[in-house]
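Step 1: inspect the first sequence and its tokens.
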Amino acid sequence: MTRALRRQVFELNDHLIAFYDGRNTLRLSPDPNWVDDAANKLGVATYAIHQGHDAIVFDTFPTIDQAQWQRSTLEAMGITHFTIVTSHWHNDHIAGNVVYQDSEIVMTARGLQFMTDLQADLEAGTTLFGPPAIDPVILPTRTYVGSTVLHVGTIELELRQINIHSPDETVIVLPADRFLLSGDTTEDTETFMVEYADLKIHADNLKEMKKWADFDRILPNHGDPERIAAGGYDKTFITATADYIENMIKGARKRGFLDAPLEDFAGKALRRCEVSLFEPYREVHEFNKAGVFPIWSNR
């Protein structure tokens, strides 16, 4: 049963738009699946930087229907030329690319490697994150390593690759606006862990990212829609994410780790309102603990 989900468009300034969907009880399917039970349940934001008839779109949503809503909204504004930047290879960031297969799609070279290696699994939808399948998987048409600069008219964007959450992660800095579009490097209430062995690297890289001097505000792909609509998070959001990761690494060696609640690892950030408690993230925390424990409990 397909139903329309709650959708919002936030005009953050005269050239930056956030699209937000999810955080509701409506489902695409009664069966367990990664769209309903992970991405849309937690809420998904994507972004567009536009000027004149051109737009750069940062991620394209977990479903074709959502991506078509995103594109149709932009086309109604007179935008006719799109460039897609894909933050990383995970399902909820690439599924909507099929709506933009007539456009240039930019990603890290590492991301293309992941997508090429995993294409058959992604299109089958039976392994990795499970159903629904992403068929066809639309691969990037342009890649970069390290960093690269793009323009939308007179607006400059810098794409930077950083190993946080996923080794192929791209974040975007808008230096004139002092915004960081953070992809999945930061997440409210807490990060969704996948690459467990790299968690120490992620925490260290978060601390380095916080030192970047060309942004003050952060716009994540998964976060509180009210915070995003109000202009995003400050740099304490990065500290909150790094602290949660480090607390999980340390906590894995302690008795009772697998029974410990979210507040034991993110309590300080919650009390300081650096992040907010969205109840479905308790399930994410349980998922994280199950992955962290086998790798970090004996280190």
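Step 2: inspect the second sequence and its tokens, then contrast the two.
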Amino acid sequence: MIIERNSILRGTVIAFMATTTLPLLAQDAVQAVQVEPVLHVSRDLLYALVALALTQVIFIASLASIMRTMGGPGGWITKLLSDRNKAAILLPFLLLTASTVNAQAFKGTDADISSYHTFWILTIINAFLFIILLVQLNLVRRLTRMVSGSEEKEAALETARALEPSWWDKLMKSLTKQVEIEKEKDILLEHDYDGIRELDNVLPPWWVWLFYGCIAWGVFYLAAVHVLDILPEQNTEYKEAMAQAEIDIAAYKSTQTATVDETNVEMSTEANFLAAGKANFTTFCTPCHGADAAGSENSVGPNLTDAHWIHGGGIKNVFKTIKYGVPEKGMISWKSQLQPKEISELSSYIMSLQGTGPATQKAPQGELWQEDGAVPTDSTAITADTTSVAVTQ
């Protein structure tokens, strides 16, 4: 049976070797089609490829001699085949290097072969020789391991590693101090509750470390907050955080000038804010409402310094009136000429003028607006003729 198997393997190897050597037999040249080369090849490059091919042939011949010396005349081949190793599949390539390649005489064509075609032929030969060289190196490595017995050592080492616990198992064991199942009988308590028995396990180390850590933190917090006063108390820290938050919110709102409208505008009493509003009032509003915003009996616009408003009081209503205007009474919309921030500044300035009207101020118009935001009530003090008002607030 063994002789028959070796005969089959020997025949397969010889057949495969013969098949792989056929492409190396030079045949009659076929009439080549002239192709315009896309790569410029110099003579130096061709000489380098020839030198590389010769160098690889020398290495291949040397490795073949080394393998024959290491394994004896065919003994290492039998060992590789009996080992059922993947290296046996690469054996024909090695045999190919030891066989004699008989090339036919090249008859050539009427014209000499071009440097471009020579370059690609040499490149393919070098690639083929490089593959053979890699196969031989792999076989030498396998033979070295077989001769030295390192394969058996590596197999035994891999088996030992497989039996060892993984790093995760080691970590969990160190964190939990869990007793192995085979040793649980050693920590089994004596009492029995309806067939249920208890194991005397120790506390997990992670729980013990956390417990002692909480104690250490409690001592540090007591000393740092209540004794040494290094860290602030929670109430003090909360107040400081809220104060800083208000500063941050104000700074953020100051950058969001384009998002101010009649729904979120707020009254501001900052000097710079009111000064900017006053400048815009002087430029755009004094012709109708007077320089002091109190108007007069001959002014077109109403008095802006009293508590009576035709279109609602409060910062939001004033902002809305300035933004959209009252076209039916002659007041234009200012949203196309003033930015939202400028309208907000102007609204806050007008609201800051409440109660500053002189004795010559225009009579109240509209309804009395309560500062607490309640629904406005009808005014009984309206004496002026509101039909002559062209510009309203």
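Step 3: confirm your contrast with the notes below.
Residues 1-33, 83-111, 374-393 have pLDDT under 50 and may be disordered. DSSP finds 13 helices and four strands in the chain.
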